[in-house]
Amino acid sequence: MLDELLGRYPYWATAVLMVIDLYGMLLKHSLIKKLVGLNVFQGAVILFFIAGSEKAGATVPILVDAGATDPALYVNPLPHVLMLTAIVVSAATNGLALALMIRIFEGHRTLDEREILERAPRT
Amino acid sequence: MTPHLPILIILPLLLGAFVVTLCGLWRPRTAFPLAILAVGASATASAAALAETARGGAIRYALGGWAPPVGIEYVVDGVSAFVASVVAAVALLVLAATRRMAAREVGDRPGLFYGAVLLMLTGLLGIVVTGDLFNVFVFLEISSLATYALIFMGGGRAMIAAFRYLIVGTLGGALYLLGVGYLYFSTGTLNMADTAARLPEILDSPAVLAGAALIFAGLGVKMALVPLHWWLPDAYNYAPGPVTALMAPIATKVAAYAMLRMFLTVFPAGYLAGATPVATVLLVVGLVGAVAGGAAAFAQTDLRRILAYSSIAQIGLIAAGIGLASPLAAAAALFHVMTHAVMKAALFLAAYSVRYRTAEVDIDRLAGIGRAMPWTMLAFTAAAVSMVGVPPTAGFFSKFYLVQAGMAQDMWGVALVVLLSGLLTAAYMVRILERVYLRKAPDDGAAADAADPPADMLWPALALASATLVLGLANVPIMTRLLIPAVSP
Question: Is the ipTM of this complex over 0.90?
Answer without folding.
Answer: yes
